């Protein structure tokens, strides 16, 4: 863990512990980049290499070219948006991307993760002020002290589609909060070319069109392909085997290949969780996970699929 206090980029990009005071409302995490933990997340994510390459190229371009481009004609807002179903790796991808961007550019950067829910849940009339303060003051100041990458996780909470909120409990407040986000983003983009926002969302439809239009790149992160399902399952088993070495022998078992086929349609999080839950298949295995069997893994994946079908059939 490599957290730091606001406005004090580490300067060395190392992964040693940093002084931290993340008591600012709406901020979930501040640390210096590159970060070894984030690099690990990036490496463990199984996607087509082209997806990671494209994201990294866009992020690097933001830092190399944005200050040289005339915004009116060549508008780069410094926003990358990842959209896709839950559990497909968007947040992990965003964190890894932040770290790999800093590493690619060879310098330290500050990483700030915004807690959108804390801002949006501010009491009536307060979220606009909270958003303005966070983006305008906190992030604005951080960006002034050096290159900075900000994760806006679940951005639909902050930049909610203003057309869809007439029936909401506090429509005016949410409307103003979205307006405030857009105003602040424009200001930040104009003032800070060394700032990049990486946003994630489960529902592109819930994100305000004006935010979507400001994104320099929108990437859809889909459910894993059959090959990726297999690779995620094997990676999870490999990590279990690092702790319980007997589990390594399961990887070549035909039932594991069957389990991988059965996993198609599950998201990456569910595949990892289902594989892990096979350790609770029986009291004996739970007591000694080295006793894990390929059949237990297959049954855990089948169970996860059955659960998914039940949930999807819910009215
Ligand atoms: N393609 C993938 N390859 C490897 N692991 C994956 C993949 N997709 C998801 N995972 C794993 O699933 C877990 C959840 O990932 P993450 O939280 O990044 O998903 P998310 O898309 O942000 O989900 P949500 O929309 O619910 O916030 C992580 O442990 C991640 O490693
Ligand atoms: Mg997420």
What does the secondary structure layout of this molecule look like, with pairings?
Blueprint: E1 27-33, H1 36-44, H2 49-65, E2 79-83, H3 90-105, E3 109-114, H4 116-120, H5 127-144, E4 148-152, H6 171-191, E5 195-201, H7 209-214, E6 217-220, H8 226-243, H9 254-262, H10 268-277, H11 283-287, H12 294-313
Parallel strand pairs: 2-5, 2-6, 3-4, 4-5
Antiparallel strand pairs: 1-3
The structure holds adenosine-5'-triphosphate (ATP) and magnesium ion.
Structural description of this entry:
The chain is built from twelve helices and six strands. Strands 1-3-4-5-2-6 form a six-stranded mixed beta sheet, with helices on both faces. Helices cover 49% and strands 11% of the residues. Helix 1 crosses helix 3 (90-105), helix 8 (226-243) crosses helix 10 and helix 10 (268-277) packs across helix 12 (294-313). The two termini are 42 Å apart. With 315 residues, it is α/β, with parallel strands linked by helices. It binds adenosine-5'-triphosphate (ATP) and magnesium ion (MG). Residues 90-91, 153, 200 line the site of magnesium ion.
Total domain units: 2
Distance between the termini: 42 Å
Counting H and I runs of at least 4 residues, what is the number of helices? Answer: 12
Q: Averaged pLDDT, please?
A: 86
Strand adjacency order, main sheet: 1-3-4-5-2-6
Order of helices and strands: EHHEHEHHEHEHEHHHHH
CATH class of the largest domain: Alpha Beta
CATH homologous superfamily grouping of the largest domain: P-loop containing nucleotide triphosphate hydrolases
Radius of gyration: 21 Å
Percentage of β-strand residues:
5-15%
In which range does the helix fraction lie?
40-55%
């Amino acid at each position: 863990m490599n957290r730091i206090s606001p406005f004090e980029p580490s300067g060395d990009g190392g992964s040693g512990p940093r002084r931290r005071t993340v008591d600012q409302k709406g901020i979930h995490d501040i640390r210096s980049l590159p970060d070894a933990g984030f690099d690990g997340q990036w490496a463990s994510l199984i996607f087509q290499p082209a997806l990671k390459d494209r994201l990294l190229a866009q992020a690097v371009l933001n830092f190399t070219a944005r200050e040289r481009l005339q915004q009116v004609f060549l508008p780069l807002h410094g926003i990358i948006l990842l959209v896709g179903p839950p559990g497909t790796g968007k947040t992990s991808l965003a964190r890894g991307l932040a770290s790999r961007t800093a590493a690619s550019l060879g310098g330290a950067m500050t990483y700030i993760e915004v807690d959108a829910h804390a801002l949006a849940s501010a009491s009536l009339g307060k979220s606009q002020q909270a958003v303005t303060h966070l983006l305008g003051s906190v992030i604005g100041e951080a960006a002034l002290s050096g290159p900075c990458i900000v994760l806006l996780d679940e951005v639909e909470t902050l930049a909610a589609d203003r057309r869809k909120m007439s029936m909401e409990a506090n429509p005016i407040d949410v409307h103003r909060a979205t307006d405030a986000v857009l105003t602040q983003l424009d200001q930040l983009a104009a003032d800070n070319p060394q700032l990049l926002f990486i946003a994630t969302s489960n529902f592109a439809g819930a994100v305000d069109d004006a935010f979507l239009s400001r994104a320099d790149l929108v990437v859809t992160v889909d459910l894993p392909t059959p090959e990726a399902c297999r690779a995620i399952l094997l990676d999870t088993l490999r990590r279990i085997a690092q702790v319980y070495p007997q589990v390594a022998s399961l990887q070549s078992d035909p039932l594991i290949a069957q389990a991988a086929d059965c996993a198609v349609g599950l998201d990456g999080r569910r595949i990892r969780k289902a594989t892990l839950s096979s350790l609770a298949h029986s009291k004996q295995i739970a007591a000694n996970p080295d006793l894990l069997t390929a059949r237990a893994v297959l049954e855990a994946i089948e169970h996860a699929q059955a659960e998914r079908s039940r949930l999807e059939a819910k009215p």
